[in-house]
Specification:
alpha/beta, TIM Barrel, 12-stranded mixed beta sheet, 12 strands
Length: about 350
């Protein structure tokens, strides 16, 4: 039998020290945000030395050659980045080359406030596949509290709902998983919003992803007592609309549940990185807007990739650097937290830089 060259190429892709393959590149485009969510605590300005379009393309191409098949664009708030559509369009050739080292999916995480109908159409036309919009409350007071914009809550809630409509009209189909709604739940700040958010998502016909409040960064005041366990969230919603478990996909972050009463197959999802860690098959690499690579959301420090990007990109050197970084990866911070509760707290990079 003649060996399949694609199988050989896949076998050559790097594994980390725990045997985990590459998969998702989360690329932050800015650390700035137009909101001030208390679990993220973004800065008002970007760090110096942000990557430009050429450098980002070189990074994405190197990552794709190593088996990173999904590119997720994050921030800060990525819609503040003026070159967003240009970047999405520029990476399209990486999708057409085929094989196990080709880019397959391009996704965006946004708060949606700046998503106009024209911008949604432009992103879809540029080649964006999926969009996740964040909303942490279902009424004006909760939205104002969770965005740090207490006087603007009603207006922000309306704009996010309009953003979801714009995305749907632009062709992002929630039934195909192309449009979802994220909500971070802090027991003390918006724990009462679990059921109202589920009701809103059901009305809008989009999958809701409830995310446990995570200890990312050093300034969000995280304590274990502020975590509302995902199991408790599911139980609350199940009491109103019965749910059947679907499970967590390999390498996925969310465990999904199906509403029994929805003929359209609508799902609920929960991300339980605190109470039910999923480090065992994590395949994510995060790169900040200024080119620092982090192999874990909870990492203390990153690796500066700019020496292989400046003054001009060094494709071979960049591939070697990323492959070496991945092969040395052994992070399992959430599992270690779960097995050693109350252990010493370590400094983490801020979520606004890592993009969640």
């Amino acid at each position: 039998m003649v060996p399949d060259p694609l199988d050989a190429a896949a076998a050559a892709l790097p594994l980390d020290r725990l045997g985990r393959p590459t998969g998702v590149l989360r690329l932050s485009l800015t650390a700035r945000c137009n909101l001030a969510c208390p679990y993220c605590c973004p800065d008002a300005i970007d760090p110096p030395g942000l990557l430009d379009l050429r450098e980002r393309l070189a990074l994405i191409e190197a990552a794709a050659s190593l088996g990173f098949r999904c590119l997720r664009l994050t921030g800060g708030e990525p819609l503040l980045h003026r070159g967003l559509e240009d970047l999405v369009q520029a990476v399209q050739p990486l999708r057409r080359r085929g094989g196990p080292a080709s880019l397959r999916t391009i996704a965006l995480t946004t708060n949606g406030v700046l998503l106009t109908a024209a911008r949604a159409r432009a992103l879809r036309q540029a080649g964006l596949d999926r969009m996740t919009i964040s909303l942490d409350g279902a009424d004006g007071a909760s939205v104002g509290r969770m965005t740090g914009r207490s006087s603007e809550g009603e207006a922000l809630l309306q704009r996010v709902q309009e953003a979801l409509a714009h995305a749907r009209e632009a062709g992002f189909d929630p039934r195909l998983g192309e449009l979802k709604l994220n909500a971070v739940i802090d027991r003390h700040r918006n724990g009462d919003q679990v059921v109202p958010l589920a009701a809103l998502a059901r009305r809008l016909g989009v999958e809701l992803r409830l995310i446990e409040f995570m200890d990312v960064g050093n300034r969000n005041g995280w304590t274990p007592e502020r975590v509302l366990p995902a199991a408790a969230m599911v139980e609350r919603i199940h009491g109103h609309w019965p749910l059947d478990p679907v499970g967590r996909a390999p390498n996925g972050t969310a465990s999904r549940w199906r509403y029994r009463d929805r003929a359209d197959g609508l799902h609920l999802a929960v991300v339980a990185s605190i109470t039910a860690p999923f480090c065992g098959d994590c395949n994510r690499l995060r790169v900040t807007a200024d080119g620092q690579a982090y192999t874990c959301l909870f990492a203390e420090r990153g690796t500066d990739l700019r020496p292989w990007l400046r003054p001009a990109p060094d494709p071979a050197g960049l591939v070697a650097a990323l492959a070496g970084l991945w092969r040395q990866r052994h992070d399992r911070s959430s599992e270690e937290r779960a097995t050693h509760p109350g252990g010493p707290s370590r400094p983490h990079a801020e979520m606004a830089y890592l993009g969640g």
